[in-house]
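Sequence in, structure out. Go.
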Amino acid sequence: MAKRREKRTAGADADAGAKGQPGKPVEPRDPGESGPATRDWTDDHVERWLPVLPALDADIEGAVTRMKKLTVHLRRVREQSLVDFDLERHEFDTLHKLAGRGGRATPSELAADLDLAPASVTGRLDGLEQRGLLHRTPSKTDRRRVDVELTASGRSIWLGAMDVLGHEEYRLLGLLSKEERAQLSDMLRRIMVVAEADGGARWN
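Output:
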């Protein structure tokens, strides 16, 4: 039977994934183990659409749909982690960018990292400083400048929210062996190199 190559998709309903909760990390399985062939939601999705779209490439549709659903699942876990730690998304993003600069940055640096106007960053910093998650101090090297520093409380909350998502990522990808995870990462890299060509899928 000839391979189906036509670029068609039935993934309009692929985002309707089940809501997941973070769990404890699991140890990767032994590379020699072969788990049972369990069907997932996507198997039924592809099976349902093949009679409607005979030219549908089942492997491409299955891979893309699973990537979409995994992204939705991890986004829901992240959103729940922000609720658990009483953080708005923009608050987490600001703490995340600040932590990424070693816990200290200028407002202008944060504005550039967040792709925001300086005035918008000022409002965010006001709220986070009131909560004790960061503080602003005059620069030790330039009195005209203000430095923003992550407090111990801010770092703890940021790490806590990060850990929830990290545990879920490890719980899922920990089902694969180290070699399988490397293979998966390499294959996704090959795809992303094409997607990022000419700036198509790049982001900071």
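Check: The longest helix spans residues 58-84. Strands lie at 104-105, 134-138, 146-150.
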